[in-house]
Amino acid sequence: MHWHSSTYRLRLRLRQQHSKLRKFSGSRSDKRGVDVTAVADKLKDGIEFKDELAELDEAKIEKIIGISADSYTKAKVYVSSSGGTAEEIDCFEAKDADSAKAITDTLTARVESQKKVFENYVPEEMTKLNDPVLVTNGNYVYLCLSNDNDKAKEIIG
User: Fold this and answer.
1) Is-contact 122 21, C-beta < 8 A?
2) What does the alpha-carbon distance between residue 77 and residue 61 come to, in Å, rounded to a whole number?
C-alpha cells in the first residue's frame, strides 16, 4: 500500500507541474499569435477618424513611412487619404528584436517629421502628433494617430 500512495503523490505532483507549464506556454503562444493586420483593421473600424484612411502597399510603406519589407514579416498601414490630417495607423510584426527597435525609431522620426509638416499647415493636428500612441511589445510595433488614444490603447492591448 505504501508504494501505491507514493506513486499516486508523484503522479499528482507531475500533473500539477504539467498544468503550470501548460498555462505558462499558453500565455507565451498568445503573444506570438497576434495578427497585426487584424489589429490595424480593429483600430480603423473601432475609432472615429475625421478623414478617410487609405491602406498602403509594401512599396508605399517603404517610400512614405521609410520601412523596408525585409524588416518585417507582416504589416498593415493606413494613412490619411487627403493628407489633410495626421491620422495614421501603423502595425508591424518585425522579423526580430533589432528590426522592432529600428521600426520604432523610424515611426518616432516620422511623428517628428509630421509635426514639422502640420504645425503651420493644420495646427489642430498637433494634438495627435504631440501625444501619439506608440507601442512596442516584443516584435510587434504599433502607432496610432487619432483623437481617441484610450480606445487605441484598449485595442492594441
Assistant:
1) no
2) 7
Q: Which residue has the cell 505558462?
A: 24
The HSE-up count of residue 73 (CA atoms within 13 Å, CB side) is 12
What whole-number distance in Å separates Cα of residue 130 and Cα of residue 62?
A: 24
| pLDDT range class, residue 8, cuts 50, 70, 90 | low
* Dihedral sign, Cα of residue 107, residue 112, residue 117, residue 120: positive
Handedness of CA 44, 48, 54, 56 (dihedral sign): negative
Helix and strand numbers (H, E) in the chain are: 6, 5
pLDDT of residue 32: 55
Place of cell 507541474: 17
Q: Scanning the structure block, which residue is given the C-alpha cell 521600426? A: 103
Write the DSSP symbol of residue 60. Answer: H
pLDDT of residue 33: 74
CB neighbours of 38 closer than 8 A, spacing ≥ 6? none
pLDDT in tens, 45-94: 999 999 999 999 999 999 999 999 999 999 999 999 999 999 999 999 99
Give how far the C-alpha of residue 84 lies from the chain's centroid of Cα atoms, to the nearest Å.
24
For residue 24, what pLDDT is reported?
A: 35
